[in-house]
Every structure is written in C-alpha cells, then in structure tokens.
Amino acid sequence: MVRRERDRRGVWLALLAGLMLVLAAIACNLSGGDEDDEQGTPIAGSGLPSVEVQAPDDSAQVLRDTDVLVYAVARDAEGVTRVELTVNGFVVASQASPEIEQGEKEFEVLLRWRPTVVGQQQIEVIPWRGSVRGESATLTLNVRARASEITQTAAPTFAFMTPTPPNPSQNRVCRVQIAVGALNVRSGPSLVYDTIDRVTIGQELGVVGRQIYPDSWWQIFYNGRIGWVSAYYVNQLGDCAMIGIALPPPTPTLRPNVTPPTVPPTNTPLPPTPTPIPPTPVPGTATPTFTPEPCRVRITTNGLPVYSGPGTNYTRMTILSAGQEFFVVARDPGLRWWQIAIAGTFGWVDAQFTTLLGVCQYVPIGAIPPTPTHTPSVTWTPLPTFTLAPSVTPLPTLTSTPTATPTDTATPTVTLTGTQTPTDTPTNTAVPTETPTPTVTLTGTQTPTDTPTNT
Fold first, then answer.
1. Which of 145, 199, 281, 285 lies 20 to 30 A from 179 at CA?
2. Residue 109: enclosing H or E segment and its boundaries?
3. Alpha carbon distances (Å) from 106 to 45, 56, 143, 204, 267
4. pLDDT one-digit tens code per residue, 316-343
5. What pTM was estimated for this model as a whole?
6. DSSP-derived secondary structure for 232-295
C-alpha cells in the first residue's frame, strides 16, 4: 500500500517537472522574439522625430545684438514638417518644410536668433511631425557684451556659417539666405510658375524686387538671370526697406488635367492666440466699444505707379499690381490721393484706381512734401535749339561781298611851258608886291601802273 502511494507521488512529480520545462521553454521563446523585434527596423510611425544640432557647439560664446545661426538636422520615419527654436521656453524662430503635406525624412534647417541679454542662455531645438512633438536637443550658449570678452577659439564651422568677427561691420545690402536644405527658384512669385533653378541651404542671393500680396516672395538675381524664391524659406539679411514692388510675369497656362498647387501656409508655428472673450456688461456701466477695422486700399489696375507725393510731378517710386492691399496712413485735402505704407516706407497712389476697405472716414490729412525743384528745369531747357546757332551768324555771306573800290596809283606826265617876266626888280629884302603867274599846260595820258586790289 505504501509502495503504491510512493509510485503515485513519483508520477505526479514527473508530470509537474515536465510541465515546468514546457513553461520555461515557452518563456524563452517569447523573450527571444522581443529581442529580435528591438534590434530590427522600427515600425513606421511608432517613433518620434529627432533632431541633432550641428552648430554652434555646446557652451559656445556669442556676441550680444549679433545674429546667431543654429544649424540642425531633424529626422523622422514619416517626415518632419517644421522645426522650432526656443530660448528659455519662448519660441524665437521656426522654419517649415517646403514639403507641406508629408514633410521630409531628413530636414536640414538654418534658424536665426539675435540675443539681447548677457549671460548663459539655454536654447532648445524641437522637431515636429504635424501636431506631434519630437525629441528635442538642448545646448547652452554664453552671451558676451563685447567682442573683446570672447576668449573661445573658433572651431571649424560649415561653409555657410560665418563666425562672429571681432569687430563686425554691418553689411546693409539687401539679400536673403536659404534656410532649408534645398529650395526651388521659379520664374514667377507663385507655385504655378516653372522651376528654373535650385539653391541649397546657406546660400546668399542678392535681392532686386519683392512681392507682398497675396504671398511674400523675393525677386533675386542668380546665375545670370532673374528668379523668385518664397520668403517662407529664407532669412532676410541687410536693409531691404528700399526694395520696390516688382510686377510678376504673365501667369503660365496650365497643362490639361493639371491641378494647380496649393499655396503654402504661413510660417507661424507659435501657439495660437486665445480668442478674446468680450466682457459681460455690468448694469449701469457703458458698453465697451471694439476697435474698428483699419483703413486699407485694394489696387484695381495693373501697373499703378506709386509717387513720393500726391501728384504725378513727384518722383515715381514703384508700380503695383491689381489685387494688392496696403494700409492707409494719410490722405490729401482733396481726397484724390492716398498715402500708403509699402515696403518699410510710404508712398502716394491715385484714389480713382483703388477700392477702400475698412473704416476710412477718420484718416488724417498727411503732410504734403514740397514739389520737386527739378520739374521746371526739365521743361525749360530746349536742347535742340542750340544746334541752330549757325543760321544767326552767316559767316560765308560776310566774306563774299566785295565792298572795296579800286585805288588809282597812276603817276601822270606833266610838261610846263611859258616864261616868267617880272615887272619890278626888288632892291631890298621886302616881299614883292606882285607875284608872277606862270602859265601851266598839262599834256599827256594817265596810265595806271597797278591793278585794283579787292580789300
């Protein structure tokens, strides 16, 4: 009996040991599968975007009130749509990808920041995939007040990143620097125009014109010809206040079955401004009034000139296109001209070729600049009349009129005949009382010995 119980226990122990071996094998297989998945290629969309700051280095020294360029490369399996630069928690720069919808799997970006506070500043670069925030990269920069305080040896930088000079001289020439990895140069200021060239990150291009409405574009000179680049993907350098508005070329005809591209969104990745809630009026208090919409004008004709004063006798500044809108800052007393804010300055447009928008009855009368002094001189100096001077003094007529008479230099032959008979002989030295009168006869011919000369 006892022996049967022992046999029965042995069978149960053997079964229990076998079961434990099976469970251990299953656990090993499961753990091995997890390790293979971790070492393999991650599933698309499961990870977050990442970013790596290429320049400047951590703890680098920079100069206050001088542009600092941050070069970063963001990566994502699906595509990075934008990259932000924050300083002490505040967004100071942002750059969107030219690939608007899907983004770029490797997105190079050049962000610009100008520090204004001396000391250590912590900056953070954040990649985004749409509304998904990626893993950021942080570094600390030491901001110095004077160039003499920078003791750090400049490390090798990229070709397009110029280190801060000891005594920087401001280059005021208007130009733009490409802020993304690659950008198309088009024949006109819109995505419907053809691509004529391509530029890369860090390149600086000279600016010759601009367009503000409906989207911001820069007209540049590159490789010997005129092109256009979108202002959303470049950094403005220098003084561009005097750059005029350039008319775009004719819109090309779309090919059949071709959908025009969508207009890129504005580069505003900052958190949205909360919608203001109007206060609830309290009984007995005045109802709050809202600020009216500011006065604007919309241009209704192509090629409308902008003058420096309210009249065509002033200097012409630039020309506008139909559809462009500008804020009105002043008017003339006769309500025939509007003064508008354009490209960092002010100009005047003829009111009959514009349409008013907003509240314009409170627009003040502007200061009328003096009439240019060079206008009368242009109409007074008749240059062609000076070429008719020979008709006033006919020199050939003066020398061709002989007015002199011939001079007679002939010597005649004279013969004297006759006798002198005095009637009294003087006895003293007194003057005789009668003078003998001789008889003179002239005979001979007059022969001119010289020819008359024309004087």
1. 145
2. strand 104-113
3. 15, 19, 30, 22, 19
4. 877 888 888 888 999 999 889 999 988 6
5. 0.50
6. GGEEEES--TTPPB-PPPPPPPPPTT-PPPPPPPPS--SPPPPPPPPPPPPTTSPPPPPPPPPP
